[in-house]
Amino acid sequence: MVDTSAVKGALRRQQIETPSWAYGNSGTRFKVFAQEGVPRTPWEKIDDAAQVHRFTGVAPTVAVHIPWDRVDDYAALAAHAEERGVRIGAVNTNVFQDDDYRLGSVTNPDPAVRRKALGHLLDAVDIMDATGSRDLKLWFSDGTNYPGQDDVRTRQDRMAEALAAVYERLGDGQRFLLEYKLFEPAFYMTDLPDWGASYAHCVKLGPKAQVVVDTGHHAPGTNIEFIVAFLLREGRLGGFDFNSRFYADDDLMVGAADPFQLFRIMYEVVRGGGYDPDTGVAFMLDQCHNIEPKIQGQIRSVMNVQEATAKALLVDGDALRAAQEAGDVLDANAVFMDAYNTDVRPLLAELREEMGLHPDPVAAYRASGYFEKVRAERTAGQAAGWGA
Ligand code: AOS
Ligand code: ZN
Ligand code: ZN
């Protein structure tokens, strides 16, 4: 039997980080649909992130993206976040939007471009110093479009050199999370295409180099929960970029496409001891809300992660082990599915009430009038969207 008060205690401690870029306008390469009331500045993005925490109680940090969230004074931005009841989380770098990066950033054949890209990564660590952030999230769009375009092996050397320089610069209590992605924007070869490549670079450098699993960055059918179990066992799972994919890197709401997969992932996190905040596994969202309201989309996503986590915590470990050891395939599977098929919404509603929150965060947010207020206020100026 699973102790539900222990499950609630664990859920109360959960921390899910929302990304600043989820609050701004975003879209596909075909169209960015502008929405009313979106933030005009990084300060306003933090205001919106604070609303997600206000109504869910489990989203106390917001990731920033440089230069989309460039400000003159990052300590002041961190103080602004604290004032709003949240903190700045991971600092995300951007070495993919300058013309200079046409042939890559840190793996570019031109040493001057490589120096520029590395400079940006090192500047991001300065920002972490100012904001008190622990994590630097590194995603590289680097790769090639055509066979023979550049030397695959030399590009790995360049990648290793840049990562070593960043690693060297990290202070105490700081680490980098190295993301991988199967393809896009490079279509033939990506320099960090999978967890194995990220993992190998991290292992060479040391414990402050960790792998981040973006759930949308795999080929269809990939067993992501196996990757999670493996990385946790090796002490190299730095965190997640949660989102859903139907086709490629869709960045849709986590748990929307395949809640069962999310449950299986969260089960491996719990099983591998990666759930407690002090183990350093960061639960981050990496999503864009192109057609739906953004703050509500983030609230819904946080709730989806909570639901999958609750189900994972409800797996009866003793019964599962007994069935596994007895080789009882169907019983073991049934124990697993019992947890997945549990409706955890009443448990989460109860937990929220115990935390002094409204049991239905979406309804509470809608009733709060926040959207109407910011829609009226934020009428002037350029919206701070993806790529702004
Ligand atoms: C890109 O595909 C990666 O998922 C990045 O983590 C992230 O989405 C990007 O840096 C922000 O749009
Ligand atoms: Zn990502
Ligand atoms: Zn992505």
UniProtKB/TrEMBL annotation:
Keywords: Isomerase, Manganese, Metal-binding. GO terms for molecular function: L-rhamnose isomerase activity; metal ion binding. The keyword Metal-binding applies. The keyword Manganese applies. It comes from the Bacteria. InterPro entries: L-rhamnose_isomerase, Rhamnose_iso-rel, Xyl_isomerase-like_sf. Gene3D superfamilies: Divalent-metal-dependent TIM barrel enzymes. Its EC number is 5.3.1.14. GO terms for biological process: L-lyxose metabolic process; rhamnose catabolic process. This is L-rhamnose isomerase. It comes from Actinomadura litoris. The lineage of its organism: Bacteria, Bacillati, Actinomycetota, Actinomycetes, Streptosporangiales.
